[in-house]
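Input (structure):
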């Protein structure tokens, strides 16, 4: 008596090729999606680090501006220098208070500081002593790299902006009421900040 043999079925070569093609397409799409995800993460990480750098720099600048003091300085030649000076290239120097002295060193808590653009770096400078020699060099530090442009302006009591301070011609009494910063930096473009000086003066 012949026994009934069950039908044995399998994949044909064409079916196997189609399956491999599908797996290959899915693998390629997954690889591209993963690559794009990694690239997007790196871009977001770089953007986040850049924004953190900008935030720290603006915090440093704001702390200085809010500590402005109307205290001119004198150099070795006994020529008084105004409490605030803004040059035609956007550089600023000013007197600020609140210079912390945790080691109780014999020095003033009032400090002379300055900002300028050096190449593509925003540089902060400060002098160890307030009234100083004419040739005394400041101590500098880079506050923010990758800066395209930097401008400071002074605001008088009428709300007018001055690119140079103190003004060369004073027909009427003029008072300093605020300081404006305009800075251009990638990737956010131009940022403007305005600070009211604690005790404005001419």
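Output (sequence):
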């Amino acid at each position: 008596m012949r026994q009934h043999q069950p039908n044995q079925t399998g994949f044909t070569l064409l079916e196997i090729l189609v399956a491999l093609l599908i797996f290959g397409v899915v693998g390629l799409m997954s690889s591209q999606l993963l690559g794009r995800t990694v690239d997007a993460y790196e871009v977001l990480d770089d953007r986040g680090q850049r924004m953190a750098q900008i935030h720290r720099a603006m915090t440093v600048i704001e702390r200085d501006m809010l500590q402005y003091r109307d205290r001119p300085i004198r150099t070795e030649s006994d020529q008084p220098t105004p409490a605030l000076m803004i040059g035609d290239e956007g550089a600023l120097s000013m007197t600020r208070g609140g210079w912390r002295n945790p080691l109780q060193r014999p020095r003033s808590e009032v400090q002379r500081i300055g900002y300028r653009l050096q190449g593509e770096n925003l540089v902060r400078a400060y002098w160890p002593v307030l009234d100083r020699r004419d040739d005394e060099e400041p101590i500098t530090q880079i506050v923010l790299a990758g800066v395209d442009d930097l401008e400071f302006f002074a605001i008088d009591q009428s709300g007018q902006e001055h690119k140079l301070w103190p003004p060369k011609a004073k027909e009427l009494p003029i008072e300093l009421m605020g300081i404006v910063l305009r800075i251009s930096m990638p990737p956010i473009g131009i940022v403007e900040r305005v600070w009211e000086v604690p005790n404005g003066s001419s």
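Notes: The two ends are 122 Å apart (CA to CA). The longest helix spans residues 13-65.
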